[in-house]
Structures are given as C-alpha cells and as structure tokens.
Amino acid sequence: MYAPTPRTTASRARDRMSYDSAAAHAVLDEAYDCALGFTVDGQPRVLPTLHVRIGDTLYLHGSTGSRPLLAARGDGLPVCVAVTVLDGLIYGRSQFHHSANYRSVVAHGTARLVTDEQEKTAMLTALVEKVGTGRSNDSRPPSRRELAETAVLALPLREVSVRARTGGVRDEDADLHLPHWAGVLPLRLTAGPPEPDVGVTAPLPAYLRTARTPWHDPVPLHGEHVRLEPLDLAHAEELHTATADDDVWRHLGVARPTSVAGTAEVVTAALLAQQRGERVPWVQRCAVTGAVVGTTSYYEIDPERRSVAIGYTFLGRPWWRTGINTEAKLLLLSRAFDELGAVRVAWHTDIRNVRSQAAIERLGATREGVLRMHRQRADGSWRDTVQYAMTIDEWPNAQASLREKLRRTAPVA
C-alpha cells in the first residue's frame, strides 16, 4: 500500500480513490497513455511520453534535448505523472450524469536523470518488451550513439494514488422515467492487423498474432511432404509465383491476381478475416525444397459446438496429385480431432469443381448435400455448394487410410 499524502488525498469522490500498489502497478503495466507534468521557468508543461515500470520505479522515455530532461540534471525534476486506461463511456438520461469508466494512476515526486548505461539499457529493453514479449530478442539493441541520444527519467513510486470509476449509469431517481436511452458503451484498446514495412520478408512474430482460443491459433504443422506455417504478407511473392495458373483459381471466390500486389490483397483479406476470428490461414511449403506452394485455412470455427471447416485451399499446379495436399489435410484433421477435440470437420466446394469433390471424397469425408445459391463466384454468378463432413466416429478409419496412402507416396523433390 502507498501512504496517502496531502497531494494524493481526494477532496471529493473519495470512494473512487485507492492506494493499493498492486492496482497501481496493473494500470501502469497495461496503459500506454502517459502524461508528464512539470514546470519550466514558472510555466506549466504537460508532455505525452512512453513509460514502463520496473519494480517500484516508473521510467519515462525522452530525448536528451527535451526540456524536462534538461531540467532534471542536477537535483532532479519535480513532476506529476498521470497514466489512464479508458474502459467505457456512460450515457445518462441527463447530460449531467454522462461520464466515463476509467482506471488512472497519478504519481508525484522528483524524477532523476538516468546516467548509468546499464540501467538505461534495462529500461529500454523493458519498454520494448512491453509492446511484445520477446521483442527485445527480435530486434537490434541500441547502439552507443542511440543510447547517448536517449534520455530516461526515473521516478520512485512513493506518492501514488489510484482513481477509478466502474459500473453503470447513476441517474437521479426523478430522471428514470425519461424516454432517453441510457447505459454503458464499453471501450478497449484493440490492435488492428499488423502492416509490415516495405521490404520486410520476416514472418509476423507470434506476439503480434491474435489467437482468441486454441482453435484460432495457427500453430506450425510439419510432415514429410508439407509444412504448414502461419500465413503472412511476406509470403505473397512466392505464393503468386507458385499459383500463377488459371486452373488453380478457376473455382475460387476471387479472380486470379495478375500481380504480386494482387496476391498480397488476397493474403491481406485472409489476415483480416483472421483478425476478426473468422479464419485461421496457413501457407503450405514443400517439406523437401522449402518452396511456398499454396495456402489453406480453418474457417467456420465453432469451439462451443466443436466443429470447424477446412477450405480456402489453393495449391500450385506442379504439386497437384502429390502427397502435399493429402498430408496437409491429414495434419489439419489431426489437429482438429486429436488436439482440439473436434467432433465434426466440414468442407464446401463449388458444384462445378469435380476435381475438388473427388479429392475430398478420397479423404474419407461424406457428401451431405447441396447448398443452393450459397456463394457468389468471382464473375458474380451464384454457385451451388456441395457440403462434405467427417465426424469423430469416421476419423479413425480415415486417418489409417490417409497414412497408408502417404506411406506409398514419395515426397516431391
């Protein structure tokens, strides 16, 4: 617990105040919104800044030429730091009772300029780790010149208070009959799909992927014929080259891309669907050569009903009728039934796509029926969709059959 002081004691709404150190640390560790207040030449200043907590010290990032860092030389700089997480907007029946749910920390004290190189390096490492666990090992550490250009303030967490509002609307009793909507609009900081810089070929790191449940996690899967790894924009060029054939795209829901940029758009659409929790896309690599040869996905993911579909599959023509597609499906079926506990796996294919239907039947799936005018084709026409499925009861025989087929198939060199 932090001891209250005259500067941290509330003059009103004291029920919202807390001095609990664990609650304060939780807000500081979660939040990115940090405001640093100080005075220069008798004038107030407030600057947004980056922060990270290490133990009971709050570190603030800045430039060696910034005013607060220059002012902190010598005896230190008196500061007030405010860190806030906004959790929701409150809509009251009256305008007076509109409000917000939030959690905030205010810390007072004298910040010192960090001059020890090891302490500064530890702070910068912690700051990088805050945006992604493992990021410090996945990026170049600062050079001596960069360290010299970076200034860090250290504020001991001694005079600290936590202020929070939770709950719903607190309208006056006399206003409860008013015909206005009232309630809470929850807010949260949500990451969008990562956008790689120009020239980046490294795959998206795990800490930037959104995995809502194990069913949504594109874990790498490995076999003798094929490797499945999480689809990434960095795969677009190889994928475009591998699938540059009209027959590959003939029955897909999008037209064949005419450029790498077009294939990148297809990949981006898959990643956006993954961000929404609708798909889990993998790229297929030849296990022998390492070449990108196609892609496949989980979709219609339903952990509650323990079912998933396999689709959005396209494979470069040179790898048709090899063990790659068979083993890819075996890996996906094994993950679904044996690891995730699925009781049903489904497939959907265009009624015109006789080759795909035959391939699905060879897996051991059962044709269940036709969904009429189910989806639109790339040319705008409506397609009838043939639906197949395999259940947990059918899986043991199907698994044995697929393994025997692969045993008789040599990997593609």
How much of the polypeptide forms β-strand, as a percent range?
Answer: 25-35%
Largest sheet properties: 10 strands, antiparallel
Low-confidence parts lasting 5 or more residues at pLDDT below 50? none
| Portion of residues within helices | 10-25%
**How many alpha or pi helices?**
10
**Overall strand count:** 18
Span from first to last CA?
65 Å
Compute the number of structural domains.
2
Mean pLDDT: 92
- Fold-level CATH name of the largest domain: Aminopeptidase
CATH class of the largest domain: Alpha Beta
Give helix and strand order, one letter per element, not per position. EHEEEEHEEHHEEEEEHHHEEEHEHEEH
Radius of gyration: 28 Å
Report the principal-axis shape: elongated
Query: Structural class of the helix and strand makeup?
Result: alpha+beta
CATH H-level superfamily of the largest domain: Gcn5-related N-acetyltransferase (GNAT)
CATH architecture of the largest domain: 3-Layer(aba) Sandwich
